[in-house]
Design goal:
By secondary structure, the chain is an alpha+beta fold. It has 8 helices and 9 strands. The strands form 2 sheets. Strands 5-6-7-9-8 form a 5-stranded mixed beta sheet. The chain has a 4-stranded antiparallel beta sheet with strand order 1-2-4-3. The chain is globular, with a radius of gyration of 18 Å. The structure holds flavin mononucleotide. Flavin mononucleotide (FMN) binds next to strand 3 and helix 7.
Amino acid sequence: MTPFEAIFNRKSVRHYRREEVPASVLDKIQDFDGELLPMFPYVKTATKVFREEEFGRKELMLQVKAPYYLAIYAQELEGYQENAGNMMQQISLYLHSKGIGSCFLGLLRPPKGAPCPEGMKFIIMLAFGYPKEELNRDASRANRLPLEKLCVYKQEPMKATGQLLEAARLAPSSVNAQPWKFVVYRNRIHIFVSEKQSLRPVARWNGVNMGIMMANILMTAEEYWIDVAMTRSENLAEKAIPHYSYTGSVLVKP
Ligand SMILES: Cc1cc2nc3c(=O)[nH]c(=O)nc-3n(C[C@H](O)[C@H](O)[C@H](O)COP(=O)(O)O)c2cc1C
């Protein structure tokens, strides 16, 4: 399975076997060396693998237990949370393609005393390892809102636009909040994020969630050779879907 195919087959894995992941994989996810598709290339990020034994017992209390955890750090520049979510989702899909399961963890921090890369901030953790449960889940069984609930259709989308939307719909998010809405034209998707107060504790992860969803869009564009541009339309920032704010647009080039 390729990382792209994993978009449609992945699920969060919460039970793991105590089995070593090959050093080549551990090395790769700590040094992708420009192989990932960043949303904002000017935001520097770094990743670090921790083993379960490096955490104190209290630190892992109530957390998903896994043999490995991957921390991602980023420079605190505009779009840094989105960028980190976007990179981490690509790593998670890469791991899946190698038969390795993973699960984002919003509440786990790096082990006490672990140094933070200079000028960066810790953003999010990913538990990973070989699964003790089913690794795959067909997209039809994923608990996600249908596109009709997520989209406001202004025009009939062209095929490529529809493919990007389906990949976006399947993205994981904190407590499965799916905090996005899409205003859809033939070859344009305007993206909005929820401001709902009820999502307050989750809203903290909205940047990461949006980045994860964008990773699915960008990887799908890459797979199908769909030429896309990420843009921001200033006059849209004023127009609103109630309780949602505009974050940006994806333009599918002809
Ligand atoms: C930013 C973020 C934080 C998350 N935090 C946790 C967590 O602390 N514990 C957990 O079990 N799952 C966590 N998840 C996993 C989500 O609950 C899961 O992705 C969502 O319910 C959708 O299910 P699926 O990944 O199986 O498709 C998190 C996911 C994201 C994106």
